[in-house]
Specification:
Nuclear Transport Factor 2, Chain: A, 6-stranded mixed β-sheet, SnoaL-like, about 50% strand, alpha+beta, 6 strands, about 100 residues, single chain
Length: about 100
């Protein structure tokens, strides 16, 4: 699904190894972690996905965790990604880096 030169803007990395590492880290801390796509929009070579995040504790402010990602697609593969989230356990990723 991902091009060899896939670039993740949130992670600042090329290739998908950093993405796999981030997912493995999240799953090791939150085995029930999952994304539930709520909206998927496609426009030319861009795909936007708004997902609810399940399987993690809801923050003290009660805001439901969610993630918005935008992918650029070329030749049927993801080549670039941007992301923005709320209520996500990012300290887990930064502590494991």
């Amino acid at each position: 699904m991902f091009a060899p030169d896939f670039f993740s803007h949130p992670l600042g990395t090329t290739g998908f190894e950093a993405g796999k590492h981030a997912w493995r880290t999240l799953i090791s801390h939150f085995p029930d972690y999952r994304l539930v796509a709520e909206d998927i929009l496609v426009d030319a070579d861009r795909v936007a996905v708004r997902s609810a995040v399940a399987g993690i504790p809801v923050p003290d402010d009660g805001v439901q965790p969610m993630l918005i990602e935008i992918f650029r697609v070329a030749d049927g593969r993801f080549v670039e990604a941007w992301g923005l989230g709320q209520g996500l356990p990012l300290e887990v990723l930064s502590a494991d880096s």
